[in-house]
Task: structure prediction
Amino acid sequence: MPAKLFPKGGCDISIWVEIILWKFLFQVPTNRLLNYWEQSCDLSLPPDTVGDNLERLPPLFAPLERAIYQRCRESHHWHAEGTRWLVFSDEVANQRW
Result:
């Protein structure tokens, strides 16, 4: 039996991986994804259930977030915006806002 992300949930982890990828990587609205699955895969998931469970996800990512922060703090260099736009500077005749 596949592992479940939520103890009483009806979906296994693979469904949640797909939802997260479609929603956050591909920027597809959840409703569009659920309609697509219903039409093409004959899989019907209630939008309220998906929405409620999406709200339960952030605490599950907290350990990953802490690990990323810790790794960044231990790094020898930081990645930052490097374009250096001169918006408020004496070198620029006008402001670019």
Observations:
- The chain has four helices and no strands.
- The helical segments are 13-25, 30-41, 47-55, 58-74.
